[in-house]
Amino acid sequence: MLIRAGYDIAFNSSQDVPMIANLSVHASRNKDLRTAHRIFTTPDVPLYDFVDSFGNTCTRFTMPAGGITLSCGFLIEDDYEPDPVVPDARADALQDLPDDVLMYLMASRYCETDRLTYDAWQMFGHIPPGWSMVQTIVSYVHNHIRFDYQMARPTKTAYDVFYEQTGVCRDFAHLALTLCRCMNIPARYCTGYIGDMDLPALLGDMDFSAWFEVWLGGRWYTFDARHNIPRRGRILMARGRDAADAALVTTFGPVALTRFEVYTDEDRLAPNGG
Fold it and tell me: Does 43 sit behind a cis peptide bond, omega within 30 degrees of 0 on the bond before it?
């Protein structure tokens, strides 16, 4: 399937503000792009990209006083297969984990394993470590948390979500991956595009999405606590320990968000339906 995706995001400020945008498609999907992927700014300002320690493409620029608009649109090919389901995938022994996977067992800015380990072992310690444990955690978070945009805030952590029982997709991901880490299963945060094309009804205004990946049987698998079903058409932008490592935009000064539009749709004009 060919998917057309992109965004139009605007900020305002009374002063120049250096910024970092994590809004590019992840390098692992570059081969699937069928049009150029480029970030445009209004007004036009110098941009340059670098790759961070998690392999994400980040864009540096300075927003001039008065504000800036960031926009991007592209066409990407996707196999449109559902997230893999491998019920017999087992958790790796800690001593067998690759060195670069170990960091995804540790506490991080939004994922306080130290505050949730006791509860996690009380709830999930009886389940064999592997796919069934992860799926039980995902189902618990899906049923435990009520989705509510009005309850979102940038400082909300997995511990807050656990007790407040409300949040948005990043909060679902933070709590689920934290509980996995508590159970000695490496887990990392992901953000990107996923449309409503595979759902029976629209969920509301389009937004970027958050999910997570766990390390089982020597590889990473995708899980989504917000939806709790295998989804189709994910377009990865960034990964990290949590949302702090994959923030859509990081600002180094006072700014106000004035416009936020995201789209992800099947390109129905493609030959043979894509």
Answer: yes
Q: What is the pLDDT of residues 215-247, one digit of tens each?
A: 999 999 999 999 999 999 999 999 999 999 999
pLDDT score recorded for residue 272: 46
Q: Mean pLDDT over residues 109-120, rounded?
A: 98
The conformation of residue 93, written as its DSSP 8-state character, comes to: P
Stated pTM of the model: 0.94
Q: How far apart are CA 197 and CA 271, in angstroms?
A: 18
Report the length, in residues, of the chain. Answer: 274
Residue, of 152 and 210, whose pLDDT is higher: 210
Residue 4 CA to residue 1 CA, distance in Å, equals 10
**How does pLDDT run across 81-93, given as a tens digit for each residue?**
999 999 999 999 9
The pairing of beta strand 2-12 with beta strand 48-51: unpaired
What class does CATH assign to 2-80+248-267?
mainly beta
Q: What are phi and psi of 229, to 5 degrees?
A: -145, 155
Domain with CATH 2.60.40.2250 in the chain: 2-80+248-267
Find all residues with CB under 8 Å of 160, minimum gap 6, and list them. none
Domain 94-240: state its class. alpha beta
Number of Cβ within a 10 Å radius of residue 262: 17
Pairwise CA distance, residues 42 & 63, whole Å: 10
Return d(Cα 141, Cα 139) in angstroms, integer. 5
